[in-house]
Amino acid sequence: MEADQGAARRQVSDVVAERIERLIVDGVLKVGQPLPSERRLCEKLGISRSALREGLKVLRGRGIIETAQGRDSRVAKLSGERDASPLMHLFNSQPRTLYDLLEVRGLLEGESARLAALRGTEADFVLLTRRYEEMLAAHAQEQPVDPREHARLDHAFHLAICEASHNPVLVHTLQSLTDLMLSTVFASVNNLYHRPAQKRQIDRQHSRLYHAVIERLPEQAQRAARDHIHSIRDNLQEIEQEEQRLVRATMRLEGWA
């Protein structure tokens, strides 16, 4: 009898754990985000508190949920920080990586924009519109905004498009590259936003991308995303070449050559 009860309890805990895992995979619960209260989770999932606690215990054992002393339970960082950090350090230390990552962004974000235009729900588009308007509001401020805040808002806009693709693997792939992604966004913000022509170009590209997605134009959305990333790459390369020409000319002027 006790063995049967233990098996039933394990079965319920696994079912609850799988339902919460699905929320994480679907991006409803995000990495680092505190879980809703027990009461709210029980209401949403239609389960008892004891079943919820058993399910969370399973997830903690799998390393998917973490609970620090004196803090709420959160979705754990799933990418394996210990293994990823040396790789991230190597990538961040190599200037060439910026252009390699822009290539990857062009591929992944082009496809995520296409899928978002095909699969996005009205709720997705409400969130995307919110991110887009937050980005525009920051651009319109008279006082200069910290470039890192611009980068964060820019990245949040692109991530909202990816989430609207409803491809969990694509979403988690981009989220696992967040630190590197932010480095490319920061590079574009820091080098291009203070140049009026380039900033206007980026604003137009964001507008084309946003409208193609919410108007459900998949091919145009894919092209807009790729054109945007390729344009950033070309502009950054041009700035880099300008700086190299300036260095060479200065060295000749000072008699180095």
Automatic annotation (TrEMBL):
<keyword id="KW-0238">DNA-binding</keyword>
<dbReference type="Pfam" id="PF00392">
    <property type="entry name" value="GntR"/>
</dbReference>
<protein>
    <submittedName>
        <fullName>Transcriptional regulator, GntR family</fullName>
    </submittedName>
</protein>
<dbReference type="InterPro" id="IPR000524">
    <property type="entry name" value="Tscrpt_reg_HTH_GntR"/>
</dbReference>
<feature type="domain" description="HTH gntR-type">
    <location>
        <begin position="10"/>
        <end position="78"/>
    </location>
</feature>
<keyword id="KW-0805">Transcription regulation</keyword>
<dbReference type="Pfam" id="PF07729">
    <property type="entry name" value="FCD"/>
</dbReference>
<dbReference type="GO" id="GO:0003700">
    <property type="term" value="F:DNA-binding transcription factor activity"/>
</dbReference>
<keyword id="KW-0804">Transcription</keyword>
<dbReference type="InterPro" id="IPR011711">
    <property type="entry name" value="GntR_C"/>
</dbReference>
<dbReference type="InterPro" id="IPR008920">
    <property type="entry name" value="TF_FadR/GntR_C"/>
</dbReference>
<dbReference type="InterPro" id="IPR036390">
    <property type="entry name" value="WH_DNA-bd_sf"/>
</dbReference>
<keyword id="KW-0175">Coiled coil</keyword>
<feature type="coiled-coil region">
    <location>
        <begin position="222"/>
        <end position="252"/>
    </location>
</feature>
<dbReference type="GO" id="GO:0003677">
    <property type="term" value="F:DNA binding"/>
</dbReference>
<dbReference type="InterPro" id="IPR036388">
    <property type="entry name" value="WH-like_DNA-bd_sf"/>
</dbReference>
